TrEMBL record:
<dbReference type="InterPro" id="IPR015927">
    <property type="entry name" value="Peptidase_S24_S26A/B/C"/>
</dbReference>
<feature type="repeat" description="PPR">
    <location>
        <begin position="376"/>
        <end position="410"/>
    </location>
</feature>
<dbReference type="GO" id="GO:0016020">
    <property type="term" value="C:membrane"/>
</dbReference>
<dbReference type="GO" id="GO:0006465">
    <property type="term" value="P:signal peptide processing"/>
</dbReference>
<dbReference type="InterPro" id="IPR019533">
    <property type="entry name" value="Peptidase_S26"/>
</dbReference>
<feature type="repeat" description="PPR">
    <location>
        <begin position="411"/>
        <end position="445"/>
    </location>
</feature>
<keyword id="KW-1133">Transmembrane helix</keyword>
<keyword id="KW-0378">Hydrolase</keyword>
<dbReference type="InterPro" id="IPR001733">
    <property type="entry name" value="Peptidase_S26B"/>
</dbReference>
<comment type="similarity">
    <text>Belongs to the PPR family. P subfamily.</text>
</comment>
<keyword id="KW-0812">Transmembrane</keyword>
<dbReference type="InterPro" id="IPR036286">
    <property type="entry name" value="LexA/Signal_pep-like_sf"/>
</dbReference>
<feature type="domain" description="Peptidase S24/S26A/S26B/S26C">
    <location>
        <begin position="30"/>
        <end position="129"/>
    </location>
</feature>
<keyword id="KW-0677">Repeat</keyword>
<feature type="repeat" description="PPR">
    <location>
        <begin position="271"/>
        <end position="305"/>
    </location>
</feature>
<keyword id="KW-0472">Membrane</keyword>
<dbReference type="Pfam" id="PF01535">
    <property type="entry name" value="PPR"/>
</dbReference>
Amino acid sequence: MQIHHALVHLITLGMVISSALMIWKGLIIMTGSESPLVVVLSESMELGFERGDILFLQMSKHPIRTGDIVVFNDGREIPIVHRVIEVHERRDNAQVDFLTKGDNNPMDDRILYTHGQLWLQQHHIMGRAIGYLPKAGWVTLVMTEKPVIKSVDQTARQIHSSSSAATSSSTLSKSARSLLRDLSLRHPLSSPLLLPSLLADPHLPSWLLLLLSQSARPHDALRVFDHMRAREVVPDAHASSALLTALAKSRMTATARKVFDQMTRAGVAMNTHVYNAMLHVCLKAGDAALAESLMTRMDAAGVPLDRFSFNTVIALYCRKGMQYEAMCVRERMENQGVKADVVTWNSLIHGLCKERRVKEASQLLREMAMAGVAPDHVTYTTLVDGYCRAGDLEEAVKLRGEMEAMGMLPGVATYNAILRKLCEDGKMKEVNVLLNEMDERKVQADHVTCNTLINAYCKRGDMTSALKVKRRMMESGLQLDQFTYKALVHGFCKAKELDEAKEALFEMMGAGFSPNYSVLSWIVDGLCNKNNAVAVLAIPDELMKRGFPPDKAVYRSLIRRLCKKGFIDLAGNVFNEMQGKGLEADCLVYATLACAYLTAGKPVAALDILNEMAKKQLYITPQIYNYKSSCKFAGDGVLQFQTKQCRCDQKKTWEGRSGCSRLDYEFLRLRGAASRTWIIFMATHEHYS
């Protein structure tokens, strides 16, 4: 009888386990994810999700977008639940890369990825969150608790505690938490109708502003900020600094300045973190004057400057070439008891190397060691690059040896600096030796390495080697940029392989890069050198056949180069074709043609061009004015072109001003070659204060 009961229990247990496995396998098939259910283990996604919440995952064919919550595993024992903050699609193979971040973490997940990994690939993603069940995973959490999990939790808590003035999760109501979870699973601010209900809770606006700012959604964050201002809701310092940082990362520096002024008027508690975020904006904008005024305001308000504040200002001064000011900030840093770290020294060394003051930079390296700050890869790479740019390859190699002696293997940036100098000196044998060394040490070449090699081979006319590097570049998944295509076009033109140069031009435009004046000039020069300048007229038609309709910039470049080479009639034909296609010429085209006609002794044609320019009310910009202002032509029956110097206050430039100048054409006297007439072209600028 006991055996019978035991068999019944055993069969029942087996059926339960089998049913569970069948349900699990069914969920896997339905959701397309290898793990349809996951438990949130850390606090990195609070306040949206807490530890113990169960998330339902799905792997659909729909692409993952910025703002989606995903579960990824890049080889670790425990998968991670975080939000996608950036999606990058490669043009060459359409592969999609992802960057993730915890909503409650101050930085992205690159510190959590495998060493050297900057992005997640599609195969790392286990699923996308489509639903949740709060607190239902606590049993699993307790049963599967491991030391690894504890360390992750401690790290998350430390990161959370280090961020100042964070909104406490206990202050949010249950309905607000539920709304936040629903909002997180959809995209933040997917509907404007959610804003009024969100802003009604006194604790939600700042948290929502923080969430959107850290999720790389600055436009949505600005919308929330505007609604908060309209309701006279003041964001806290943590959310304010996050918004300014997000605007700085998105290069929305002008908007960040306005937002900062609005924050000041709204009464935001301006602490060190808020000022640091605004100093970061100044760094991105290169505005040293605003940074100085911010430091003055911090001193007046009694807000202390920390190491980040000083380092940001020093980096800004070094970028602007203001080394003396940077050194003064470092002295003030020491006087206030803030010890300079490796970032401080690296900024100062980089500033000196940028100005070719490598000996002074080396002296800073010695002072750095005396101060007890150990140099890192960036320090040595900066100095190696500085010596290479200064032409001292021997000293650069010595520094690389010193770097290796300290146990730091050179990275790809270090190799790139030496490779560039070797290529400039034409030492291709040494280049091959260095490339073999990179292969032996498994240092992966990047696009800078490949572009350096391609440019060197193209300058030497070795297009076979240049194309080999290009193929390796594409096979490695590296993206060809505008510099790559420019080097190839230049190399083919130099080798007099104009058909291949045109193919490289078409490939360049197919990749989304517009050819500039230099690229088209090389092709025009190549055709002119082959006594085939007429073929230039066919370039717009060839572009049209390839599906790249020529724009104003293409026609402008062709006209300018033909005029430069002396083929003025052909330039006029291109100009007529440009107008026939409905493209309006700008003032540079008209000024170039007029100057070319004057040089060729055709004053009537020049007068026609200038009259047409005046009818269209086109104004000569200061750049064109200065470029074309000093033209004097001697000889009987030839035009004399004179201009009046424009008066302009140095503090008020002509650039970017609407209606900054008015051009008056005064043709005082006109006479032909037979009657010895001069045309005096006077350009007078009215200065507007």
